[in-house]
Amino acid sequence: MEKTDIKYKSYVQILKEELVPAMGCTEPIAIAYASAKAREVLGSLPERVVVYASANIIKNVKSVVVPNTNSLKGIEAAAAAGIIAGNSEKRLEVLSTVTEKEKTIIKAYLEKNLIKVNLANNQFIFYIEVNVYYKDSYAVVRIANHHTNIVYIEKDKKVLFEKEAEVLKEGLTDKKLLNVEDIIDFANTVAIEDVSEVIRRQIEYNSKISEEGLKNSYGANIGKVLLSNNDNNVKTRAKAKAAAGSDARMSGCELPVVIVSGSGNQGMTASLPVIEYAKELQVSEEKLYRALVLSNLITIHQKTGIGRLSAYCGAVSAGCGSGAAIAYLHGGGYKEIAHTIVNALAIVSGIICDGAKASCAAKIAAAVDAGILGYNMYQSGQEFYGGDGIVTKGVEETIANIGRLAKDGMGQTDKEIINIMIGEKK
User: What range(s) does the Serine dehydratase-like alpha subunit domain occupy (predicted)?
Assistant: First the structure.
């Protein structure tokens, strides 16, 4: 692929937009970001706060620890942290500079019960609105479609900022240009200097939090369980490294990660198994970078048809991405990679997303296992064929089927998951 090609420029830009640092699970961090911005606009510590959030935001924030809060959970905690100690200029690292004193203040502010949370009544799957009040003054900040996409700011009946927020549109580089064949071409030909900054940061950040997850106790310690109950082979290590990063992150570890498709879990799943296989195979740094470009873009390509949030577990897409990159590290081309993706999707596309929490680490391990098994199947001359369930002839057609399943077919599933999580009875 030539540098002058529109796809080349778009693929580079997609990587720069998607592979960004975040500290903590991205949905509570997005709430903290909106809350920090709202307080800045208000100019005073709010006496009252009202948060409106879409159902999927509520689902993803309910059970995950907000970083730098001494293990507080939930939307109220995320909003309080953003209001008291957030720095909106740091975007998805909005809570990275919280002091010990501020952690105490956050808890005290939260205990005053000044924050009310409501379900947003609109069509947006990804929506956050924070309203803050002090005496006769108020401010409103709205985010739609992705984590840092502020679409509206108002203070005291004056609109300070507004941009169009269409349902299902992100306002980012068009990802419909992505396809498996071109992604492989791009991974093979991209000038490393065009992607080195984002890929180097992904390796550094995600490796560090994975090491932390294996060193200390977090969540259900899935990474440690894998290493203690299996042979210490590369397949086990690949799963364990990705799971350990999630163990730490879902339990409030304050180390940042580089996300993919708006998700730290997906960012770790798409990168850490690939890094582990690159070490095992002793490939060059350049080959590792190209493999990570492939894994990230394959993950993003699958997620394009699914959307940022759904009832479909995003780790599945990233596990397929890492499986494809592992095939690439072994010298695989389009045929090997396409079969790996289809095989993996046939295995684990039934995993649901029921919010961010400790069990995400185990789902990541399963997704990575499927990605690797998908490639192992091809090596052994085995494959799933078109007509086998949701698998159809061709990798792009199968990916499209997954998008249809996740976005259209699992809409009601998503509603039931949320009802179960909030305790609503039939």
Answer: 89-418
